[in-house]
Write a structure and sequence with these properties.
348 residues; alpha/beta; seven-stranded mixed β-sheet; six-stranded parallel β-sheet; 11 helices; 27% strand
Amino acid sequence: MDSNKKGINFTTYKGSASGKLVQSTTHRDRLHGEEVLLRVTHSSLCGTDEHYLKVDMCLGHECAGVVMEKGPDVKALAIGDDVAFGYQKSSCGTCSHCLNSLETFCPYRGFYGEADLDVGSMASHAVFRESFLYGVPNGMSNANASALMCGGATVFNVLDMFSVKPTERVGIVGVGGLGHLAIQFAAKWGCEVVVFSGTEGKREVAMELGARHFYATKGLRKGGLEGIGKIDHLMVTTSGQIDWELYMSVMAAPGTIYPLSVVDEGDLRIPYMPFLMSGLRVQASIIAPRAIQQRMLDFAARHQIKAITQPYKLNLAGIERAMADLRAGKTRYKGVLYANYEDVESMT
């Protein structure tokens, strides 16, 4: 980064019309208002980043870093603080949603891919609003904080916003980037966790993470899960739509289903009569509002919840390799890009 009288310049890694990752530079004349300049230490990878590979924008929305400079209106943060940011960059602050701590639904919200396209976590530095930065709790590494900023917040939002009780049974479909975090958060929340995966391959890791029960579902059809007990809340973390008929028989009345991943497979179609007769709900859930996002980090630190990660270098070659592994389904379970890769080498 170059910070001088001519402004602030730093390296970014962007998508392009051809889908090829390119290195670029972001410039700011100076910091305004509550803007904070942070040095990126870690950027985690999300499937959503793939969707923007053909867009001229800085990629990445799961960041942890260190505060380097502050704008004139920054109130709480200090130089040297460890901070993190996620999917949302801004909101209006005055609408009814913002005033009710639901800024994720603000009509003027600034989401990743929609606002400040020259700023992201796949970069040497980032300029972000203080009000959308989160303090990394004591005892939590920046690497783990970055890995929780999207997937961790997504699954924790279900537990917190929708008042899941610790006495309830939570089903989790899929053991991947989202699913392996959902198991840990739900188990530490106090719930009885039931995991569904295609094969037996992830049984051991699911049980180690806190699952009480595990069921392989490949080849099962309608009624194939009967007798396993009822599920109060079902988090669907898979990247494709599931066989909804298979799960209708295990949903408690009135249970709730939460589709949590971005799926490009047309409409959501659920068997009508089982849905109606059991009084089921399908609850959409996107990223967490700020209050819940910070509670997620604090909860994870308190209960030592950690993502299972694969390290990569935060440079052009490292990002390309990480995205190729993600695309090929080789990532177990979160790819984390390290600005200082020597930190990884010293641990091996």
